[in-house]
User: What shape does this take?
Amino acid sequence: MPIPPTGPSANPRRGFWCRLVGAVSGNVWVRTATRPAVYFSLAFLTLGGFIAGVGFWGAFNTALEAANTETFCIGCHEMRDNVYQELQGTIHWTNPAGVRATCPDCHVPHPWTLKIARKMQASKEVWGHLFGLIDTRQKFLDMRPTLAQHEWARMTANRSAECRNCHSPQSMDLAKQSPEAANAHKTQLLTGEKTCIDCHKGIAHHLPEVEEIKGFD
Amino acid sequence: MQAAATEPRKWREAITFLILAVLIWPVIAVAFVGAYGLAFWSYFMLAGPPGPH
Assistant: This one.
């Protein structure tokens, strides 16, 4: 049976792109994929697509959740040996109520779009890990002012959104706070003049050891 | 006659379906979400970190 001439050899005098398109569209798999199904019903194909979609959705969210755990975060020694060690011993690690904050609670935005944007931003961290940008304690200490300022700028801009996932100014019992704290919260937090991060820097990790840091007053 | 010659075999159609359903479309979906996140990250780098939401 005659088979229509396709593929790169069909006409060698045509241009490169023309021949490429010809080769791709002439490929038997591509032709199968781009033409109506011959053997399978629409009901079967939509069911198959539906099942594959459910599976994909579950797998995607499972992977996203797995990448949003502390175990994942401290999988790299940069996090495990530096910031994770410093967190231990702070009020966000142990406290009377036994409620713990893990890395993503504070450092990964909860709204979906911002979370995905943060996950893509983490490609920069993968780069840093691969090329050992902070693979020693000293490199980390040198980099700490920059890293801290990134987080401070982010939390200042979103008005400490991650803190507020747990802490609510309206639920604060000012009477149980020290007079200084109660006064500061009353005059600056409740008025909306300032948010958590403006005063509470260095509460979960050590502060950078430099005197002049932009954004810290 | 010619239509019969270009008609795909059943197993080829089944495998094409499987490759599309479990490989190609999922990869495109992940790439799409990645591009979405990358677009927002790029935007935040220009416009500063996102504000209250």
Q: What stands out?
A: Chain A touches chain B through 37 residues (CB under 8 Å). The longest helix of chain A spans residues 42-66.
